[in-house]
Amino acid sequence: MNGNRFGRLFQVTTFGESHGEAMGCTVSGCPAGLELSEEDIQADLDRRKPGQSMITTSRGEPDDVSIKSGIQDGYTTGTPIGMVIQNKDARSEKYEPFITAPRPSHGDFTYSAKFGTRNWGGGGRSSARETVNWVAAGAIAKQLLAHAGIELKAHVNQIDDIAAPEVSFEQLNEHSEANDVRCAHPETAERMQARIEEYQQEGDSIGGSIYFEARGAPPGLGAPRFDSLSARLGQAMMSVPATTAFEFGLGREAREYTGSERNDDWEFDSEGNPTPVENDHGGIQGGISSGEPIYGEVTLHAPTSIPKSQQTADWETGELKDEQVIGRHDPVLPPRGVPVVEAMLALTLVDFMLLSGRINPDRLDDRPGEYDTDYHPSNPRNE
Amino acid sequence: MNGNRFGRLFQVTTFGESHGEAMGCTVSGCPAGLELSEEDIQADLDRRKPGQSMITTSRGEPDDVSIKSGIQDGYTTGTPIGMVIQNKDARSEKYEPFITAPRPSHGDFTYSAKFGTRNWGGGGRSSARETVNWVAAGAIAKQLLAHAGIELKAHVNQIDDIAAPEVSFEQLNEHSEANDVRCAHPETAERMQARIEEYQQEGDSIGGSIYFEARGAPPGLGAPRFDSLSARLGQAMMSVPATTAFEFGLGREAREYTGSERNDDWEFDSEGNPTPVENDHGGIQGGISSGEPIYGEVTLHAPTSIPKSQQTADWETGELKDEQVIGRHDPVLPPRGVPVVEAMLALTLVDFMLLSGRINPDRLDDRPGEYDTDYHPSNPRNE
Amino acid sequence: MNGNRFGRLFQVTTFGESHGEAMGCTVSGCPAGLELSEEDIQADLDRRKPGQSMITTSRGEPDDVSIKSGIQDGYTTGTPIGMVIQNKDARSEKYEPFITAPRPSHGDFTYSAKFGTRNWGGGGRSSARETVNWVAAGAIAKQLLAHAGIELKAHVNQIDDIAAPEVSFEQLNEHSEANDVRCAHPETAERMQARIEEYQQEGDSIGGSIYFEARGAPPGLGAPRFDSLSARLGQAMMSVPATTAFEFGLGREAREYTGSERNDDWEFDSEGNPTPVENDHGGIQGGISSGEPIYGEVTLHAPTSIPKSQQTADWETGELKDEQVIGRHDPVLPPRGVPVVEAMLALTLVDFMLLSGRINPDRLDDRPGEYDTDYHPSNPRNE
Amino acid sequence: MNGNRFGRLFQVTTFGESHGEAMGCTVSGCPAGLELSEEDIQADLDRRKPGQSMITTSRGEPDDVSIKSGIQDGYTTGTPIGMVIQNKDARSEKYEPFITAPRPSHGDFTYSAKFGTRNWGGGGRSSARETVNWVAAGAIAKQLLAHAGIELKAHVNQIDDIAAPEVSFEQLNEHSEANDVRCAHPETAERMQARIEEYQQEGDSIGGSIYFEARGAPPGLGAPRFDSLSARLGQAMMSVPATTAFEFGLGREAREYTGSERNDDWEFDSEGNPTPVENDHGGIQGGISSGEPIYGEVTLHAPTSIPKSQQTADWETGELKDEQVIGRHDPVLPPRGVPVVEAMLALTLVDFMLLSGRINPDRLDDRPGEYDTDYHPSNPRNE
């Protein structure tokens, strides 16, 4: 409703502004019995954090997560997991020129129009810094999915007009973290890197896109119509800051395919069950998962904060002025967006796994250990 | 949760299967005092209904809506509006071959995987017939938006590789209903029509896309992050059956723009207020409306039901078989999809208007008439 | 949000006014594979319907339910169950004096204050007639609970100052439907009946209360804090028209018990599991079910529509006037409230059974029959 | 869904266990422009905190709140308000005997039955310590209500069989904080205090109840049926730990009133508007506020943690054992429950104020100051 909650059964609630004291995130609905540590979460935070390479902002944030609740002896307890991440390197003075003069294509004007005010330091709540919370929550979702046999991965598949060729899931896993661009096709990654640096030197920025894929999702996830897997993925991915397009399967290209070309015939798999011959449908049919890999793509526009001078209109002085957005900014978003897209994919899938009862909403059944009180005969699970 | 509800304050709940007795829809959260009749709703239903032209299915459904509640003396009362639309021309026998042998790229397999069964006649709940409910609800939303000064319109902007040139909002309104394709560029419409008929004669079908635009939305609609206007539009549009891509503003093309190209500078409007020089941002900045026209695009794949023979796998007999989906089907979806996309746009916008208090959730203030009991001094609205 | 929805996973959405064309109800989230017929629902509707005895209103409504969707070959399909119940005996003219002069302690004034208007015939949306929808939905919930081994029952345990002694669950089942008052203690029922008739003859009405009990609920239902079983029962029961108090366990009497008196010690049951020695806690500890019977009580005030003359204030004419609420009304609410309380109890419990995964949200596992497509090896349920 | 969220537009999300590192709470949906400081919140936290008198637990928690986000220059910004309260005086060793042997009538057994584990230190998530979050959130709600002219107050109106006489709202405000019991009738407070100490010395505890009242709520708050003001208050109050009964207006006594006795006639107020002669309806008619004071009562059972020896059953050893719950505990709950009940009342009312548009969900209109960007002509609020 107010924009800081995601999920139906696996619920994420966030707080925090770019230059505020801390970012924070509460995950509720994670079943008891999942092994979880701060390190598990930190690994993904480190993939998103600023300052990790020459093509990211130089803001220095360690993004150390601190879990405040919901874990006992290394396992989740089923109650809310509160997490806090301190902001340590905020420098708001660079944003003062923009308090009453909105930066072009940022949320400055629109937040002020909505709230009559806004936290202006570093973009406040509208800053992509807030996705640190998503990645923290998404790391928990991934852990839970892994437990259920679902894996997922994303990589940068296009920067400007440089498109990577199709890669296998194995290539995705092997190569996407091996370069600063996070493109799983090493040769393309190099060309992308060069292009990004070119724009960066010009004081400009550039757009790109992210391909994502999930393997191991059982058939039957998603609900008819408004809560279809595609609709909820649509919401999830269109939440990602700077996203202007979401596609799955053949996506936007589907408009140029005939039915007979795009339709996937059925055959039997080795165990005698129907299975689609191809996967032009991106793992989703009628809004519900088919058991095939779920894949799609997200386009992120170029960062709006650029050193190049742009025109703004100061509503207090009534003057037009040319301003540079100095701060410390990314010249391109997809490389740091990869873990964010993965997080939103994980959060969406884990919710459907819980909603379909495929992951037990209260507790994982195979939780070992001393507090295993799985004892009551009138509990149907124990029969 | 279960897929048959849309909206937070303006809530739509639907029921019905393609070959069931009736379709139905309950709208709650429509404020009191809106003038509303069955005719207002029927006008949009007629744009969506089958059998309206040579390039739609020949199923004969009048789609007459019957309002059961929520209206008194021609005005809404603020309580739920129940609507029922009878199904009159269901012929299920054509679907019998597919009870245990899923039609390619339909929801047959996935619904069965989820529910262990499905209503197989005409595709049951997975059929696009169900969008009749959405259009009924959307017609109410449009009426409410019109009352608040917001207009919206969609048209078919591409079929196969035939793309319409950009059209103005005025052209959209003037031409989109003047041809069977619902393309606002008459000359392109003719070429599209010819192309569709070509595929239709081959026993095949073809994909396409729909452009939508809304005018008059005030700045400040949408909420930060997961409930941004773009995220909720994403969910809404990705719900539309056969949709594989959603974009707004520059959409997927944004990946090839630099920041300095895409960013929209600020100037002052005639009244001295900041206004963007251009609208590459599609009316949404930081997830919140800027006051500029909101526009975007939805891609719909080709109808999966085609007369051409396709292979399926019968899970009961264990046999592969070639089947034609005979029934009565559309050769292309966007022409009938136009009112559906408009409905989802309207439902999304009206919800944000209510959530921001710009439309009063309880009642329209200017409701005339004998039961106007706007009398109580302690009601702050009356002061 | 707007008051016509109940439930999180098992969702009920209603429409209809007392004197409108029809009442209606959509149940979504009922798993596939539940055997269900109109007769199953009708049985409970008949217990609630008007005109069933001398101590109910004489309005003549057959309350025949018509299921429009969601059932195939006698089993639920997992998709929304749409139900419609025609209104047949509305006589609105008796309500004309009250259009601008609110009936005492009714919702007339408050609905008008909220919406600036109201459907005045028969009380419109505020009428308890609307609970016909709840009972229809509740009948489905009961069927699902029975499938999971949970039974529930209510009866009238007090009218005016005539209180029934405690009865066993067996007595509840045996006697509560055997008399018009629906009190499971036959002798008390007679005294209650006489007292009700006494007030009825005086042109007055009287209050009372309903005791409810559920057996077979496993331990572990409910969630911490705001979604505790007690909190959600509180919402459910306080929704019942005319309810002014809700209690469970020792309820209001608990204020006069010490900890050592009220606390229930633990012992072992025959299978060696901890079980409480007594059940002063009403089956709920820390907001979560203990496995013991869940019981509580709901108080309903006297019907506000009485033939006795009462004073109202006409806001149009500015005159005070004495009016009788003529219509056709109940002299007491609990006898017809019994199936309503049962419905709300069932809806609350079934929701928690689904939320905890104890009932599979997609489908019942033991559904027999020809469309049983429980075949896919990658579906974890099938392993 | 998972129990740690309350509210529809004014949303509270909490985390934290009794003996965990910290408690925390995120409030989203608070409009921009509300003056707010940590001191405003601290005042209510101090009323709830342990160790405040001889009749509360001696656990030493300063309960200092730290606001992490959502405030700028002393005013809310409309974005989430993150708050953290450190736990400082947890001593878990006293709880070790109960890890596998549930304390009588606590949530120990039921949490373990649900989650298969539980955080056992100090009762973990089931501890009433968690209400520190509610009070923090409630303090913000109260501030917002005060801004809209709504005041509310609670006091202890019964302990054991000692009932306070009715008190006026003025007395409530004047006396309820003047004694340790928080009873607004000083003489009764003394008797209550003596009684509590008596039980305390016996190593026992006692129940009691809390009366609450809100003034200034406009008519028209609440929605029909399941979201009525009474239903949502029911949920809110039944969430309060140890609550076993909720009533409003005549409450449970209503069962012994006739319609003619309980019904409130209408007259005109000094300005010529209908107003009820009395307020037996507790400010709620048909589930919607009437404009009269909203009042009711909540019963809290005796604390279950008592020094007296009680029997428990150890599911690991299979032995029955007698245990004392040593820890540091309250001998009675209502004195510290008063701010908790006020918080839940405030959270419920503020939500309805937002839902009805009576408080603007985006921002308070009279917010002064330098960032007031209330400038855009197409924003209808500015016309």
From TrEMBL, chains A, B, C, D:
<keyword id="KW-0288">FMN</keyword>
<protein>
    <recommendedName>
        <fullName>Chorismate synthase</fullName>
        <ecNumber>4.2.3.5</ecNumber>
    </recommendedName>
</protein>
<feature type="region of interest" description="Disordered">
    <location>
        <begin position="258"/>
        <end position="295"/>
    </location>
</feature>
<keyword id="KW-0285">Flavoprotein</keyword>
<comment type="function">
    <text>This reaction introduces a second double bond into the aromatic ring system.</text>
</comment>
<dbReference type="GO" id="GO:0004107">
    <property type="term" value="F:chorismate synthase activity"/>
</dbReference>
<dbReference type="GO" id="GO:0008652">
    <property type="term" value="P:amino acid biosynthetic process"/>
</dbReference>
<feature type="binding site">
    <location>
        <begin position="301"/>
        <end position="305"/>
    </location>
    <ligand>
        <name>FMN</name>
    </ligand>
</feature>
<dbReference type="Pfam" id="PF01264">
    <property type="entry name" value="Chorismate_synt"/>
</dbReference>
<feature type="binding site">
    <location>
        <position position="286"/>
    </location>
    <ligand>
        <name>FMN</name>
    </ligand>
</feature>
<dbReference type="GO" id="GO:0010181">
    <property type="term" value="F:FMN binding"/>
</dbReference>
<feature type="region of interest" description="Disordered">
    <location>
        <begin position="359"/>
        <end position="383"/>
    </location>
</feature>
<feature type="binding site">
    <location>
        <begin position="125"/>
        <end position="127"/>
    </location>
    <ligand>
        <name>FMN</name>
    </ligand>
</feature>
<keyword id="KW-0456">Lyase</keyword>
<feature type="compositionally biased region" description="Basic and acidic residues">
    <location>
        <begin position="360"/>
        <end position="375"/>
    </location>
</feature>
<dbReference type="GO" id="GO:0009073">
    <property type="term" value="P:aromatic amino acid family biosynthetic process"/>
</dbReference>
<feature type="region of interest" description="Disordered">
    <location>
        <begin position="47"/>
        <end position="68"/>
    </location>
</feature>
<keyword id="KW-0057">Aromatic amino acid biosynthesis</keyword>
<keyword id="KW-0028">Amino-acid biosynthesis</keyword>
<comment type="similarity">
    <text>Belongs to the chorismate synthase family.</text>
</comment>
<dbReference type="GO" id="GO:0009423">
    <property type="term" value="P:chorismate biosynthetic process"/>
</dbReference>
<feature type="binding site">
    <location>
        <position position="48"/>
    </location>
    <ligand>
        <name>NADP(+)</name>
    </ligand>
</feature>
<keyword id="KW-0521">NADP</keyword>
<comment type="pathway">
    <text>Metabolic intermediate biosynthesis; chorismate biosynthesis; chorismate from D-erythrose 4-phosphate and phosphoenolpyruvate: step 7/7.</text>
</comment>
<dbReference type="GO" id="GO:0005829">
    <property type="term" value="C:cytosol"/>
</dbReference>
<dbReference type="InterPro" id="IPR035904">
    <property type="entry name" value="Chorismate_synth_AroC_sf"/>
</dbReference>
<dbReference type="InterPro" id="IPR020541">
    <property type="entry name" value="Chorismate_synthase_CS"/>
</dbReference>
<feature type="binding site">
    <location>
        <position position="328"/>
    </location>
    <ligand>
        <name>FMN</name>
    </ligand>
</feature>
<dbReference type="InterPro" id="IPR000453">
    <property type="entry name" value="Chorismate_synth"/>
</dbReference>
<keyword id="KW-0274">FAD</keyword>
